[in-house]
Amino acid sequence: MQKKQPLERVIFLYIPWGLALLFSYSPTTSYFIAWLGSFFIFFITFTGILVPLPDDRPLGEQLMRPILLVHIIFAGYMCCTSIFYYLDTLGYDNFHKMPFVILDRHKLELIAQCQRYYCLGHAAFVTGIMSTMRYPIKQQVRVEAEDITNLLFKAALITYPATILFLKLPGLSQFANQFNSLSFIACTLALAFAIPQKKAVNTTICALLYLFNFYTSLVSGFKEPIIISVMVLGIFLYPTYKKAVILIFIPTLLVLFVLLPTYAAVFRQNAWSGDAGADDAREMAIDATLNQDSETLDNTNWNFLVYRLSEIDMFTTYVESTPDKIPYYNFDLLKQSFIVLVPRVLWPSKPSTEALVMERVYNAGVINRGSNVSAKPAYIVDGYLSGGLVGIFISLFLYGAAAQFISQKAEQLFGGYLLGTALIFSGLFQIFWRGLSFEFILNNVFWSYISMVLIARYMRKKNILQLI
Questions:
Q1: Residue 141: phi, psi to the nearest 5?
Q2: Structural domain range at position 19
């Protein structure tokens, strides 16, 4: 049983934030201490210095647990992507220092302040995970299935029509989003199990489902689903094909990271404006991506790295307006989050979640009220808007604690890591990977938890899961 860690180890997490705060008189020094501080937190976490990693499974077979994948994606995106924005503010363009640049000290101070908030949030997030992390997990059920590969295959086949069903039912679209993610994880996991066992039928059908999901990602206009599609398949194949995954999937992800900014920009320009259908826009985007010259590629990628990869530009606007011009929201955002929990099928006139969230975006002046753009604040921003430094600590602590608790609960309900965390947690709770505004997070997590419990009861009723 995992033991509670002594207090002095937890303090290690907050050393970078404290040092960055100590050097706040020098924006650049403070920024880089806070930015490098997140890499320090990653290091002491993944090496086991802070807390021993779970030893009930090999490392490659537990990558979907919160301390690993959720931590890397959520904290990595939140804390480590602002470097390009800061370099741009220092006068760099494509990593080349531009001559005759007049530095804006006020802006540099704001960026450094936000990076310190990111570092604090990262520390609080890991503290939350540590507070609830207990391995090995005492199992409540065992999986009664002769062939786990066929069980995953059936899960892939069942969850896809369930997604279509929820789309057809008025007021239940949020369940469609849950089962759409679950369907993708199920078919990817089933494919990863079917390939090494050379099950032709399973492999073919799961591959078709995977390709359909990948095509859906391509015509979504967003970069994240495409990257996640490739990344998740690589993670599931890694325990069996370690060398192949390292040699193929890692370079593929790097290539996608370089090419997708242009692809997404061209696709949106044509598809979202109504100038072309999804398939035509996809073809134009692929053509533009593969045939662009190096200068255009550099400019597109630099703009993406500076303004799209990180959300620190918007964060500085919120920090500048709150609390000087707009007071802290205190519990208002949390109250709105509980309002959102009521399904629209029970409350047809329920306020639009998007409208509730966007109101604080307009108030802060992030975008104009008449603009046809969605710019929802990140989770850490809502923590700051609710109570500044204290709001960030509490909200990120609860975020990490909730992710870890739900992952462990899933392993209890579904007989272990494979069905619990790899399938159910990763399928229903993907929102933990990126994080969104309070209203979207609480609504998604609450109803996904209900779905998880109902699925567990159904599987017990069908004797797929049996009490120990």
A1: -140, 165
A2: 7-467
In a domain, 2, yes or no: no
Closest CA to 228 of 72, 399, 28, 366: 72
Nearest-angstrom CA–CA distance, 141 and 465: 6
Mean per-residue pLDDT over the chain, rounded = 88
Give the N- to C-terminal CA distance of the chain in Å, as an integer: 19
DSSP letter at 111 equals H
Instruction: State the pLDDT confidence band at 298, using cuts at 50, 70 and 90.
Output: low
d(CA 40, CA 112): 17
In a domain, 1, yes or no: no
405 vs 310: CA distance, rounded Å: 28
Q: Which of 45, 42, 24 is nearest to 33 (CA)?
A: 24
397: closest CA among 120, 13, 128?
128
Q: Is residue 269 part of a domain?
A: yes
Alpha carbon distance 65, 83 (integer Å): 27
**How far apart are the C-alpha atoms of 341 and 64, rounded to whole Å?**
27
Is residue 180 in some structural domain?
A: yes
Supply the DSSP string of 6-34, one letter for each residue.
PHHHHHHTTHHHHHHHHTTTSHHHHHHHH
Greatest CA separation found in the chain?
A: 72
Q: What is the pLDDT of residues 418-454, one digit of tens each?
A: 999 999 999 999 999 988 999 999 999 999 999 999 9
Beta-carbon neighbour count of residue 227 at 10 Å? Answer: 17
193-229 pLDDT, tens digit each:
889 888 888 899 989 988 988 888 888 777 788 888 8
- Class of residue 48 by CB neighbours under 10 A (exposed 0-12, middle 13-18, buried 19+): exposed
Overall number of domains in the chain: 1
User: What is the spatial distance between Cα 283 and Cα 277, in angstroms, rounded to a whole number?
Assistant: 10
pLDDT of 4 over the 60 cut: no
For every residue of 206-270, DSSP letters joined together read HHHHHHHHHHHHHTTT-SHHHHHHHHHHHHHHTTT-HHHIIIIIHHHHHHHHHHHHHHHHHHHHH
Produce one character per residue of 147-162: b if its CB has 16 or more CB atoms within 10 Å, e if not: eebbbbbebbbebbeb
Burial 352-385 (b: 16+ CB within 10 A, else e): ebeebbbebbebbebbeeeeeeeebbbbbbbbbb
